Amino acid sequence: MTDTLQDLIASAAALIVGLAAGWAVHSAFARRKRAREQRFFGLPDGSECVMVTHRDSTSAHWSIPRHDALALLGLASVVENCGAHAEVAPHDTGLQGFGARTEFCVGDPTAHRRLAAHMANLLPGVTVHPGDDSGTDRGMFTIAGTHYRPDPGAVEHVLLARLTAGDDSRPVFLAAGQRPVTHRAAVRHLVRNRVRLARKYGAQGSFCLLLKVVNSQAYGPDLVELVADVTKPATTSAGPRVAAKAATKED
Q1: First to last CA, the chain
Q2: Which residues make Cβ contacts (< 8 Å) with residue 118, sequence separation at least 6?
Q3: Alpha-carbon distance 237 to 245, whole Å?
Q4: What's the rounded Cα separation, in Å, for the pair 241 and 28?
Q5: 145 in helix, strand or coil?
Q6: How far is residue 71's CA from residue 90's CA, in Å, rounded to a whole number?
Q7: Alpha-carbon distance 134 to 142, whole Å?
Q8: DSSP classification of residue 151
Q9: Origin, by domain of life (predicted)?
Q10: Cα dist. 30→45, 74, 115 in Å?
Q11: 3-class DSSP state of 2
Q12: Please, which residues have CB within 8 angstroms of residue 149's CB and are 6 or more apart in sequence?
């Protein structure tokens, strides 16, 4: 065997070993990343989750508003990547309590029964106003005495939350907005920032973020700003002073 041939064999062997090592490192990194994502969403391999949305009030048949449907599609990709399975259920269907399986609850809390129940139980510090007879201030949020009114097409708000009933329970994710476009914006924010959110709040941590969708009439759900992390005031029952302050501002 000539020296040239030996050198070629050694180089080929080194290349194969290098490729195998690189593949092993990449695979290990991908597995760790997937495991972190599964923990954050509470979606281990083969698990079940439910996506709860409300019906399109403009349709005579069981259908989902366009932006809500697109939001659910974004969540479906996450569920598939985690190796889990999803069920879509309407908000007015009798469902079990939360915690047994991961739940994604998307919609308008003034019309979405399941979402309204979750907010009353898990976010007692948030008041969602149904509006008056003319519809004025419908969907306005009040948090810690501060009002967040919608200005349709210009400025709209949405709450994005990850909440749990206990250490061993699966999380419920809420996207509660003032218009369907804000629900889609919140889900996109969740999907795009899931790594950062998991790092900041932990795989089992709870959070509630108030987001602002700017100029949706021109930009749709693309222009989103974080207004504040309202986890503490949102998960704490509003006291008499806060309620009185909000009532005074309302007048």
Answers
A1: 95
A2: 98, 105, 163, 172, 174
A3: 14
A4: 53
A5: coil
A6: 15
A7: 19
A8: B
A9: Bacteria
A10: 15, 20, 34
A11: coil
A12: 137, 140
Contacts of 25 (CB under 8 A, 6+ apart): none
DSSP 3-state of 55 = coil
Rounded Cα gap, residues 177 and 181, in angstroms: 8
pTM: 0.81
Alpha helices, DSSP H only, in the chain? 3-41, 66-81, 113-122, 180-192, 194-201, 216-219, 231-234, 240-250
Tens of pLDDT, residue by residue, the chain (251 residues):
566 666 556 666 666 666 666 655 545 555 677 888 999 999 999 999 999 987 665 555 666 778 888 899 999 999 999 999 999 887 777 667 777 899 999 999 988 889 999 999 999 999 999 877 676 788 899 999 999 999 988 999 999 999 987 667 899 999 999 988 999 999 999 999 999 999 999 877 899 999 999 999 999 899 999 999 999 999 997 654 443 334 334 33
Cα 16 to Cα 5, 7, 183: the distances in Å are 16, 14, 49
- Residue 190: CB partners within 8 Å, gap ≥ 6? 160, 173, 175, 197
> Cβ–Cβ contacts within 10 Å for residue 24, how many?
10
Taken as a whole, the chain contains a residue count of 251
The residues near 62 (Cβ < 8 Å, ≥ 6 apart) are: 55, 90
The whole-angstrom separation of Cα 102 and Cα 51 is 9
